[in-house]
Amino acid sequence: MRLTTIILVLAGIAVAAFFLGRQRSVAVVGGTRQVRKLHSLPGYYGYYAAIWSVLPAFIVLAIWITFADQFIVSNVVNDLPLPYQTMPQSELNLVVNDIRNLAAGNIASAEPAPEIEAAVERYLELRVVSNWIVSLLCLAVSLAGFVIAFFRISPKQRARNKVEKLVRVGLIIASSIAVLTTVGIVASVLFEAIRFFQQVPVTEFLFGLTWSPQTAIRADQVGSSGAFGAVPLFVGTILISFIAMCVAAPIGLLIAIYLAEYATKRIRKTAKPILEVLAGIPTVVYGYFAAITVAPLIRELGNRIGLEVASESALTAGLVMGVMIIPFVSSLSDDVINSVPQSLRDGSYGLGATKSETIKRVILPAALPGIVSALLLAVSRAIGETMIVVMAAGLSANLTVNPLEAVTTVTVQIVTLLVGDQEFDSAKTLAAFGLGLTLLLVTLVLNVVALQVVRKYREEYD
Amino acid sequence: MSAQDRSVVGSSVVNRTPAETRKIVEAGLRKRNNAERRFHSYGMLGVIVGIAFLFYFFATIINDGTSAFVQTHVKLPVSFDADVIDPKGTNDPQVWAKANYAKLIKNSLSELFPDVKKRKEKKTLRQMVSAGAPFALADMVAADPSLIGETVEIWLPTDDEVDMFNKGKIDRSVPEKRRRVKDNQIVWIDQLNEQGRLQKQFNTTFFTAGDSRDPEMAGILGAMKGSFFMLLVTIVIAFPLGVAAAIYLEEFAPRNRWIDLLEVNINNLAAVPSIIYGLLGLSVFINFMNLPRSAPLVGGLVLALMTLPIIIIAGRSAIRAVPPSIREAALGLGASDVQTVFHHVLPLAMPGLMTGAIIGMARALGETAPLLMIGMVAFIVEIPGTPFDPATALPVQIYLWADSPERAFVERTAAAIIVLLFFLLVMNGLAVWLRQRYERRW
Fold first, then answer.
1. Within a domain: residue A60?
2. I want to staple A374 with a disulfide (CB 3.0 to 4.6 A). Which of A110, A332, B99, B185 is the partner?
3. What CATH class is the domain B221-438?
């Protein structure tokens, strides 16, 4: 039986168990008129029966899914003739892969030897057996669970409390997924990064000036060692983010000030959603725009005033990224400016200050911590942004701060290192995780600092 | 501001008569008012720049993309010659399917242009019709075998370069070596146009085909289905989990350090760059759990983890917006706290929860970077039938096409962007509508 069939059958059993359990609860007290003698509403007995009939079976199924394949493979490997038994682990893995591929009907790396063919057959055979075992086991566990629950139903049984307790457990599990995600992110990035730093020293990674991750296949080829000095990437990332902030910070702030202080209600109501559309545009669309429209434009402009502009200049990526971040800066700062109490403005106007003087001398200083934190969040956005730079910035790691030249960034390198086939023990692939760890740490620190700035320097007015 | 007008605002007026003070203030007034006006217009300029950019952006993309919704077709008198399709007279559909339909097109073209004799010229002539045209003929025969032996006028798609030329995107004044359409091809195109045999027709291929190396045969259906399966997986996983987490955190969680930590954690997850989620997907789902590469299933899982914080944060504020009086009333009538939440709070918070979910989905639909990590950038012609088949997603397709050198892919990229933006617009519109229609102010 296939997995989906098992799940469907279990779902069917659950539905049946619900109705049977409900019916039984009514029956044990002697008909619908006596229902008030039950501890809980009849539906809860139904849920109770349904949960008992499905949950244990699902646990069995989950265990099977996790371990069955390993078990089968180890069985198959044990049956292989002696030369295979003495193989080193990595070669054995290749053989196992071949067996799996052949079993799935794909083409293996080489014409299979007879013993491999036998192993494939054995693998398929075992899989069928294991499928049958688990199907029957699930069915048996499910029915047993149902029978237990069914006969436990009695007027005094506290079905509602039990079901509700389970619901709460479910809710807790759901909220801990977020923690699991964090753990997963940190663990996956950290482990691979540690493996990377075992091959390449941290100091070389952080302070090295050349980046050429293409390691050659044979040791005697040119550039076989590869160079993993990430400084050019860091400089490129900072350069592009800096250009982006040069666009986004002033425009975003001006928009926020205008919308919060000057605009009439009507203008605010129309302009705000329009600007927020900018935030909803997917980054790949900005990337297309940067690569196809803005890049030629800037090169043309550069040529006209006699400047040599690379076709994938940092300026292009930075400008477009800046536009992407404008709504981010403006909506965050807008909130901050709006939260400055009106009494401060009134006090300033009362002393005869004009509106702009009030804004510059009173409101902005009062809102400064919030604005700084908004800008920090925007920087962290810019650093982590991927698609625009993948499409519009270059691939070559130039150590330069000239915005007209092509630079590459951390995110671009992660993408180029990981797209396509990978082998998971080469420094080249692992380097992506080293970069990922750096990126994760930097964005995390920026976010924490942004929060701290608000928390520490915020003035309490009311 | 200069030092002088600071003294106006800030200095004490102890030694001055009111008249003197007024004089000083009035002297600086014009300057201050000018500064005020300037500042006001800077603000306005900011807004105008933002909005202008948005319009420029949309104008460019619509301008680039709309032409891809039509495709130049050429009307050819194709004779379904039985000698070519089924020379042995087997009447076997499999033989028909494998027949040399390219030859039919060749025959038809030499009929139309009897003057073209040289082999090389014939080849350039043949290249004007799409490489996919023979397949279209094969499909026609499979659908209607009675065509064999008949001669029919059929509209067939042209090659992408001819299409580009016909749409005016290739300049005929450029020297021949620097354009992809040859001089003699231009002559033939003009001839065909005169005979009314060239026409721009609605580009159905674009909506019904998978990816292809030939722009005129490439479509977005595969990518759209990939995106659809991905969003399906995402919503099935992220919505229940997100809502459950939001309920727990708002209604049941005790106030202690663990829960504070959990909240900080969720807020931080929302700020993690999306590419990091790709790294997570690659090392956990693909390398550790051995799930298939390039499958919408894995993409959906990654996007689910990514949208989860968004849904939780939006869900919490929706649940918080339900006034405590509702809870108190339910509890007062003897409902348990779980019953209160599931029977009363949750239905009232549902519009807000749905809005959050739709906004999360809209973000997931536009997300590209994590999908690159988990192998969804492959060139996949087949249209996926299940979430386990290899597929790309709409934004990834845009990325792939934007990288393609063929000119015709530029307009197709822009057209795919229009489709993507359309879906995003629909989703966001739905969210706004839900909010306005169902959200109650208490």
1. yes
2. A332
3. mainly alpha
Report helix, strand or coil for B292: coil
Q: For chain A, how many structural domains are there in total?
A: 2
Residue in B closest to A424 by C-alpha: B287
Interface of B with A in 371-430 (CB under 8 A): 372-373, 377, 395-396, 398-399, 402-403, 410, 413-414, 417, 420-421, 424, 428
Residues linked to residue B77 through DSSP beta bridges, in sequence order: B153
> Alpha helices, DSSP H only, in B66-218?
82-85, 93-97, 101-112, 119-126, 133-143, 160-166, 183-194, 205-208
Q: How far apart are CA B392 and CA B400, in angstroms?
A: 10
In chain A, DSSP finds a helix count (H) and a strand count (E) of 18, 2
Question: Is the Cβ pair B275, A283 closer than 8 Å?
Answer: no
Closest CA to A147 of A56, A39, A38, A26: A56
Question: What ipTM was estimated for this complex?
Answer: 0.87
Distances from the Cα of A153 to the Cα of A17, A43, A157, A159, angstroms: 12, 12, 6, 8
pLDDT, block means (10 residues), chain B with 442 residues: 46 71 88 93 93 92 89 86 78 78 84 81 83 83 81 86 83 78 82 84 87 87 93 94 94 88 88 91 85 88 93 93 93 93 93 91 92 85 85 92 85 93 92 82 71
Whether residue A375 sits in one domain with residue A288: yes
CA distances from B430 to B266, B357, B395, B427 (A): 26, 11, 21, 5
- Domain end, chosen from A105, A131, A157, is at A157
Cβ–Cβ below 8 Å for A171 and B245: yes
Distance CA A292, CA A288 (A): 6
Cα distances (angstroms) measured from residue B161 to each of A18, B107, B157, B186: 64, 22, 11, 11
What tokens appear for B436 in the block? 């306005």
Full residue range of the structural domain in which residue A363 is found: 227-457
- Give contacts of A178 with chain B, Cβ < 8 Å: 245, 262, 265-266, 269, 308-309, 312
